[in-house]
TrEMBL record:
Keywords: Cell membrane, Membrane, Transmembrane, Transmembrane helix, Transport. It comes from the Bacteria. Pfam families: BPD_transp_1, OppC_N. Its main location: membrane. It is found in: Cell membrane. This is ABC transporter permease subunit. It is a multi-pass membrane protein. Residues 87-277 form the ABC transmembrane type-1 domain. Belongs to the binding-protein-dependent transport system permease family.
Length: 289
């Protein structure tokens, strides 16, 4: 039996045992909240009582009641329906940002770790260059060039999140790179691709998940900010950030429901993902510091 096969199962069992302890009890509540939001987004076409984009002037600013459980907005659209459909764009956009940034950051971190030397230095300079652009500023620049929309905003934010992911994963991968099981695999003649994908990647996976969970919340905030500024999701599509923006005038007229409800959904979702990330990692090591 080879040295690395002895080391890896032991490490994974220990991490797996810690996972259950870290998730309880607040983490369980956070997971339940995330699952509830995901189900609401997935089942929105089935459970939403009204079309989220169609309203009626005579239904403007209806108070919560049997016909409209959460009331209506300034255009007479049902707020519950818009919140349910808004969960789809808010969660989907953040998920795309996290997936793209996680994939790009992981690849850069593993390449820099394995080859080292000039490759590591080059990757470091690329990351430093990306660090020079604040997330929202980069997204605004991309939107200014390619036009407004959710797709442009998510791609821009994904690029901006890559250095945060790569920086943390590189430090973790460097520590793993120096351990005996990697050296044993190299002595057996395994290629760098095999060692990286079979051994390094599985052992930094917990850190990848931790950073993804925390960055999911940050991505939701940034995407909501872009929609608030009119650069992300466009009306009449339902989106939580856009609803906060559209509810400003109503707020001044004494109808705070739209902004208040959408803002609450964002806060709850971000808090839940942050708790999950902290429980998975034990600390905020994977987030944007």
């Amino acid at each position: 039996m080879s040295a690395e096969t002895l080391a890896l199962p032991t490490r994974r069992r220990r991490r797996g045992g810690d996972l259950a302890n870290r998730l309880r009890p607040l983490g369980v509540i956070a997971v339940a909240v995330v699952m509830l939001l995901a189900l609401a987004a997935l089942l929105a076409p089935l459970i939403a009582p009204y079309d989220p984009t169609i309203g009626s002037v005579v239904q403007r600013y209806r108070a919560p009641g049997p016909e409209h459980l959460l009331g209506t907005d300034q255009s007479g659209r049902d707020l519950l329906s818009r919140l349910l459909y808004g969960a789809r764009t808010s969660l989907m956009g953040a998920a795309v940002v996290v997936l793209l940034a996680g994939a790009g950051g992981t690849v850069l971190a593993l390449v820099a770790t394995w080859f080292g030397g000039r490759v590591d230095a080059f990757v470091g300079r690329v990351l430093d260059l990306l660090f020079a652009f604040p997330n929202l500023l980069l997204a605004i620049l991309v939107v200014a060039v390619f036009g407004t929309g959710l797709a442009q905003a998510t791609v821009a934010l994904a690029v901006a999140y890559v250095p945060y992911t790569a920086r943390v994963l590189r430090s973790v991968a460097l520590r793993e790179r120096r351990l005996a099981y990697v050296q044993a695999a190299e002595l057996q003649g395994l290629s760098g691709v095999v060692v990286t994908t079979r051994h390094l990647l599985p052992n930094i996976a917990p850190q990848i998940l931790t950073g993804a969970a925390i960055n999911f919340g940050y991505a939701m905030i940034d995407l909501a900010a872009l929609s608030y500024l009119g650069l992300g999701v466009q009306a009449p599509t339902a989106d939580w950030g856009l609803m906060v923006s559209q509810g400003q005038d109503s707020l001044l007229q004494g109808h705070p429901q739209q902004s208040l409800l959408a803002g609450t959904c964002i806060v709850v979702a971000v808090a839940a993902f942050s708790v999950i990330g902290e429980r998975l990692g034990g600390r905020r090591a994977g987030g944007r510091a």
